[in-house]
Amino acid sequence: MQIPDDLPPDIAEAYRAAAEKNVLAALNPKVFFGYFSVCADGRGHGGNTTFPGLDWGQSAEALLWLGRSAEVLASWEYVKGFQREDGLVPFAILPGSAGQTMGGKYPLTVARNGAVFEHWVPGNPLRTLANVTTILLMERIYSLVNDFCPLPDKRQKSFTSRVGGTEWLAQQAEMLHRSTTWLIGQVSANGMVSGGGFYVERPTRPEYDGVNQCYTAHALQIAAGLLCDLGDAELSEQCGAVAQRIIACFREQFWAGDHCVEYIHPERGAIHCHGLTDVDWAAIATAVASEEQVAILWPQLRDHPGFLYSGMPTGIATQPETYEDWEMQGIDRHDLAAMGRVWYLESWARARMGDRQGILRAMRRVISCGQNNNWHWRERYYSQRTGDLGRPMDTYCEYPANLIRIVHRFLSV
Known about the structure:
Blueprint: H1 9-23, H2 55-65, H3 69-80, E1 92-93, E2 101-102, E3 108-109, E4 115-116, H4 129-144, E5 149-153, E6 158-163, H5 165-171, H6 173-184, E7 208-209, H7 210-229, H8 233-253, E8 263-265, E9 269-271, H9 278-285, H10 291-301, E10 337-338, H11 340-352, H12 356-371, E11 381-382, H13 398-411
Helix pairs in contact: 1-13, 2-3, 2-4, 2-13, 4-5, 4-6, 4-7, 6-7, 7-8, 7-9, 9-10, 9-11, 11-12, 11-13, 12-13
């Protein structure tokens, strides 16, 4: 493992710990070559589970930066095998519960092969997350191992032969076509993306989550580029056109005058009463907000203390205590937290605005927290205004994986 040059000593130390004690420690070839868990201890959230909705993509990209492309390609092939014929990628793969229906009031149905396509929370949040994650990871693989991609030797359960990155992308053409076609099918004629909470379950954010609008537009723009490289001009142009439709819709329907609408409920309308939210970060990060909107947003976002929950970046809203029970489906409030996925959005937005010092300040808060916990990070950090809402996993790989991603994408440039 080679640490990027010119990192400050404290960040270099944290980078090494994030890699060695977390992301690399989560690899477990005893399950299969290329398998990695979402927790460094190999137990949290299941010892053989895979979560193509976000967790998988974050750790996979970190592993690519760490030079472990063989394992990432093996995991890619594993997930690829679970895509449904209509193009939907499962947000979770639970081999130990294959064919079962679990839970009481809110059941979770697991397909016979272990794939989970519909969430147990009413409203089915995370609906588009896996397809977006798949498209973004495909671009990362294509970009980061563009010279040569390893190919699997199934007999040895490892990667021994190699093929050019362009040829690898060509082999993903069917999956990309199906993934993007399904995603386009979730976009209405006026540019609204269905799917509820993009990466949060409670609040469910039915039916049109602002983060989902931003990420889907971004993913379709990425898909357009990949499809162009594959020579599929027709679908590439369609992806680009749908992305622009989403952006135009967002700038009109998801703007509340001085900040972004968090989500649009099918019955209650636009919800934007919880202060600034992760949607504001997403709108800047993905360049979905207009220049005029960014000019209004950025001075509010840049130094707002409400995004720090118990000192950790980045919370999903500056007024988490204002959420009502109906927004949580009356279940719990666990996602009213600071999470690595929102920290990544903050860092991305700061990078777009040229705020390197802001990226460093937030990163050093994350580093301090990990250092104080033997270089491990919790899954969630709660605001003192909402109290500790549970006992989240203590060796979760999201913060360390995103630390590695942020270093490479936004600091080592």
